[in-house]
């Protein structure tokens, strides 16, 4: 079993930055793919970014490439999402995830953290 707890969400003006953290527990966490998804009001949950254990596989949604950076600290069992140059369209609940599928690591989910970007 893997448990995930996100933190770091909040309210920020357009052009600003936030860093989300996701602390994982369980023996599997360090060995599986970690990811971030988001869900805006009235929309389906969408993929944002994913990273393999070793960091040699990193993927981003086209909408966040060049602005968001995913990273992991295996010693701390933590995965991060650095979000720069935020836009109002980035407003959503952000979910940390983990799993075995590098294209859709959705076996385990955190509770979500709200990110609101004001214009």
Keywords:
globular, 0% helix, 4-stranded antiparallel sheet, mainly beta, 119 residues
Query: In terms of quaternary structure, what is this?
Result: single chain
* Overall geometry: globular
Helix/strand structural class: mainly beta
Mean pLDDT: 94
What characterizes the major β-sheet?
7 strands, mixed
Explained architecture:
Strands 2, 4, 5, 6, 9, 10 and 11 form a seven-stranded mixed beta sheet that branches. A four-stranded antiparallel beta sheet has the order 1-3-8-7, with no helix packed on it. It is globular and about 40 Å long. It has strands at 3-7, 10-13, 18-25, 33-39, 46-51, 58-60, 68-73, 78-83, 92-99, 108-109, 113-118. The chain is built from no helices and eleven strands. The protein is mainly beta and 119 residues long. The mean pLDDT is 94.
Brief overview, please?
It contains no helices and eleven strands. The protein is an all-beta fold and 119 residues long.
Write the layout of secondary structure elements.
Elements: E1 3-7, E2 10-13, E3 18-25, E4 33-39, E5 46-51, E6 58-60, E7 68-73, E8 78-83, E9 92-99, E10 108-109, E11 113-118
Parallel strand pairs: 2-11
Antiparallel strand pairs: 1-3, 3-8, 4-5, 4-9, 5-6, 7-8, 9-10, 9-11
